Amino acid sequence: MLLRSLNLNHFRCFESLRLELDSGVTLFHGKNAQGKTSILEAICVLLRLQSPRSSQLAECIRFSEKAFAVGGKLDGIDSMELRFQYRESGRKLLVDGETQRRSEDYLRHSALVVWMANDDLALVRGGGDGRRRFLDFMAGQLFPIYRPALKTYEKALRSRNYLLKKDASPQWAQIDAYTKILHAQGRIVSDCRRELVYQLQSRAADAEKKISVSGESLEISYESASGENDNLIATLAERRQEEFRRRQTVAGPHRDDLLLTLNGMPAAKFASEGQQRTVALALKLGQTQLFVDARPEPPILLIDDVFGELDPDRRNALMAAWPEASQKLITTTHLDWMDERFSDARRLTVDGASVS
């Protein structure tokens, strides 16, 4: 699947932007804070209805405006026009000009996306929130049941936490009604995540060996926070006093984590910064290969300024591991890492929210 065009209105720093895109490699070059990353972010929002930079799409609205719109043409087995209009009071999803009532109806027409960025290092050394978002972003693209289950879970979690905080003596009968929803939807979320990690393990380990040069061994595993057999009802009942004290839901998929070990040791604690960057890249390349194996059309790769922090060996290994058929959209602040492999790449300069 290829994104042939991109149209923006009032997105981040852009008042408007119209771009025709090539099928191979496109380089967006320029200084920091000129809009390069926002272009890739807009593509991700268009194709996946979520931002890799913010959990709130309202933050993507240009300053002083009330809404944004992104659109573009996809070419693949079928060709279609996608358009997403967003304002805080609502949104509109269109495929070939026809309104889609549900996100799932819109997304099934879209492309798979892999996002690689310089701040992916946080996948290794940061908190569990980032790793859960990584799993959510993948699972939402591979499993149709995942996104609705996660949204329902998150809505019930907010309501349950509100009830836990609302009264001096919590109304447990009301709270337990939401516990049942968390249990049912959380089990779907956990099952999908567990299956995803199982499929990702071998692919990420292979990528680690290729790009680490020294053949390091990466292992990933899923850590559920729902208790034995993912029985969240029983787990929360056992921890009721803790919930009364803390006034929040203390177990469930919103506390799950992805455990990363390198050569048998926790990567966050014992790996060097270079090794941690390699682990983060291996996770993204593992995701890429998983998408390639799962769908007849390769994913679109959005690569945000990753080359500046990589030594030549890792950089070369990374580029060699990219699927040849994938469309690659790359931002960079400098071009001194480029070689003959990028001789056919289209180069665009981004300066002051304009592209030339």
Fold and architecture overview:
There is one protein chain. The radius of gyration is 21 Å and the shape is globular. Helix content is 42%, strand content 23%. It has 356 residues and is of the alpha+beta class. The protein folds into two domains: 1-112 and 298-356, P-loop containing nucleotide triphosphate hydrolases (Rossmann fold), CATH 3.40.50; 120-294, RecF/RecN/SMC, N-terminal domain (Glutathione S-transferase Yfyf (Class Pi), Chain A, domain 2, Up-down Bundle). The mean pLDDT is 93. The strands form three sheets. Strands 1, 2, 3, 5, 6, 7 and 8 form a seven-stranded antiparallel sheet that branches.
Write down the domain tally: 2
Q: What is the name of the CATH superfamily of the largest domain?
A: RecF/RecN/SMC, N-terminal domain
Encode the helix/strand succession as letters: EEEEHEEEEHEHHHHEHHEEHHEHEEE
Distance between the termini: 25 Å
CATH topology descriptor of the largest domain: Glutathione S-transferase Yfyf (Class Pi), Chain A, domain 2
Tell me the structural class: alpha+beta
CATH class of the largest domain: Mainly Alpha
Give me the secondary-structure topology.
Elements: E1 2-3, E2 5-11, E3 14-20, E4 25-29, H1 36-48, E5 67-75, E6 80-87, E7 90-95, E8 98-99, H2 103-107, E9 113-117, H3 122-125, H4 128-142, H5 146-166, H6 172-212, E10 218-223, H7 232-238, H8 240-246, E11 257-262, E12 265-266, H9 267-270, H10 273-294, E13 300-304, H11 312-321, E14 328-332, E15 346-351, E16 354-355
